[in-house]
Automatic annotation (TrEMBL):
The chain crosses the membrane at residues 6-28, 35-55, 85-106, 113-132, 138-155, 167-190, 218-240, 252-272, 284-303, 310-331, 337-358, 379-402, 414-436. Belongs to the complex I subunit 4 family. PANTHER family: NADH-UBIQUINONE OXIDOREDUCTASE CHAIN 4. GO terms for molecular function: NADH dehydrogenase (ubiquinone) activity; NADH dehydrogenase activity; ubiquinone binding. This is Unannotated protein. GO terms for cellular component: membrane. It comes from freshwater metagenome. It is a multi-pass membrane protein.
Length: 507
């Protein structure tokens, strides 16, 4: 059973489901089409569980469940896949969120559009899965680019009147980043030939290349630029509020909860291991952008009048914390950043989907249109409050553990930066309370008068996210047991050790 190609199957299964859903005649009915798509997403989740059971803690191998097949032999390209703790957690996040999104969006698209929408979601799942398991740089780049195709159509076809403009902006930013990344990928391959006489895109091989510091600086800049667009970091962020604000809530969850994680994942998987000296030398730049993103996102969220744009700015602030943890170069900071990637995916889904249910009922995303919603939809208001509190890292929820661990790890090496970033938590409390106060309290507006409370299907879609967020808030150690070996490996790759204060503190 352990010899099964689990990771390739996790890529192929949703892709097969996508093609099948595309091919099902509309005459068979939207319910059947949706059911087939949901069935494939649940099968993929079950396959992930089986794959996860094969994952062993305490092994010396960096990657597990590995597969390697020659793809383009003349250029040293392989279909090479494997997972470490970070990859496994990201696969888990994707496997959980996709069926949740499909169930949540069950009635958000017309019957005529259901087949294409559900097929595109499954296609996106397939391509993002490939990104999270690729251990060949060329393979990673290919899927880094092709995942834009389903997301472009999901943004451009399902959303408000500005969706097409937002989709084009998303595509332009992504393609510019992709072209810069391609230049970096080619340059790494060429230098591998010059140094060793053999060209390869294998991650382990590239991480052991003796690149000059000057070469590392230029290559770091290319890779960081591409990943910072995806992350997104200020000032490369402007596509996200437009894309998330113009798309449907379900698509926004896929965009922010899953797709944007590729940026920070790429930093940990490829940027730091391949260019360790440049990563340490240029860390102050990344840390500065991280703190800037924390405050910029929070302040812009306070000034937003649109719920979806507000939540997009909140995510920019959260990604600032993730990058802060990565470039603090402490085991605790990196583990916290990886855990933050997981908790952010869950909190984003909870808030976007719950708020999306309300926006679907009122046909508006304007905050002022939803005053007094608590009086007509008290249960839905409770879910929105949960999502808002999760976004501001309420103690007892997964986001609190993530934020606290990142700040603790950062403080050990950069106490001033950690102290400044902590102020971002105060600003976060302002936008969360402001959102809830403007939408849930006061006299009911005309838009919320007479609307129905959350349905059973919608509760079922939100329940696993809420349960996981609470469970990881109280019992985070199993996740850290999976992630800590990866953070230790990253620290080894960048030749960094924890500050004495952190070591003496018992980490």
């Amino acid at each position: 059973m352990t010899n099964l190609p689990y990771l390739s199957m996790l890529i192929l299964l949703p892709l097969i489901g996508s093609l099948l859903v595309f091919a099902i005649p509309a005459a068979l009915g939207a319910v059947r089409i949706k059911s087939v798509a949901l069935g494939f997403s649940l099968l993929t989740f079950a396959l992930f569980v089986l794959a996860g059971l094969q994952f062993e803690l305490g092994t010396d191998d960096q990657f597990q469940l590995t597969e390697n097949y020659e793809w383009i032999g003349a250029f040293g390209v392989s279909w090479s896949v494997g997972v470490d703790g970070l990859g496994l957690v990201m696969l888990g996040l994707v496997s959980i969120l996709v069926p949740v999104v499909l169930l949540a969006a069950w009635r958000d698209v017309t019957d005529e559009a259901a087949g294409k929408f559900f097929a595109l979601v499954l296609m996106l799942q397939s391509f993002v899965t490939a990104v999270f398991v690729a251990t060949d740089l060329f393979m990673f780049y290919v899927f880094f680019e092709v995942m834009l195709i389903p997301m472009y159509f999901l943004i451009g076809r399902y959303g408000n009147a500005d969706r097409r403009k937002a989709a084009v902006k998303f595509l332009i930013f992504s393609l510019v980043g992709g072209l810069v990344l391609l230049a970096g990928v080619i340059s790494v391959w060429v230098q591998s030939i010059q140094i060793t006489g053999f060209g390869s895109f294998d991650l382990e091989y590239l991480a052991n290349l003796d690149l000059s510091v000057e070469s590392q600086r230029w290559l770091f800049a290319a890779f960081f630029f591409a990943f910072a667009i995806k992350a997104p970091l200020v000032p490369l962020h402007s596509w996200l509020p437009d894309a998330a604000g113009s798309s449907s809530p379900a698509v926004a969850v896929l965009l922010i909860g899953i797709l944007d994680k590729v940026g920070t994942y790429g930093m940990l998987r490829f940027l730091l291991p391949m260019f360790p000296e440049a990563s340490v030398e240029l860390a102050p730049i990344a840390l500065t952008l991280a703190v800037l993103s924390i405050f910029y996102g929070a302040v812009m969220a306070i000034g937003s009048r649109d719920m979806k744009r507000l939540m997009a700015y909140v995510s920019i602030s959260h990604f600032g914390f993730i990058v802060l943890g990565i470039f603090a170069f402490t085991t605790q900071g990196i583990s916290g950043a990886m855990f933050y990637m997981l908790s952010h995916g869950l909190s984003t889904a909870a808030l976007f989907l719950a708020a999306g249910y309300l926006m679907h009922r009122t046909s508006s995303s304007k905050i002022d249109d939803h005053a007094g919603a608590f009086q007509t939809t008290p249960l839905l208001a409770g879910f929105i409050l949960f999502g808002a509190l999760s976004s501001v890292a309420l103690p007892g929820l997964a986001s609190f553990i993530a934020e606290f661990t990142v700040l603790l790890g950062t403080f050990a090496r950069y106490p001033v930066l950690a102290a400044v970033a902590t102020l971002g938590i105060v600003v976060a409390a302002v936008y969360a309370l402001w959102l809830y106060q403007r939408t849930m309290t006061g006299h009911p507006s005309d838009a919320v008068t007479g609307i129905k409370d959350i349905s059973g299907r919608e509760v079922i879609a939100l329940s696993p996210i809420v349960a996981l967020t609470i469970a990881l808030g109280f019992v985070p150690q199993p996740a850290f047991d999976i992630l800590n070996p990866t953070s230790a490996k990253v620290m080894e790759q960048v030749n960094q050790v924890d500050p004495e204060a952190l070591i003496e503190g018992g980490n």
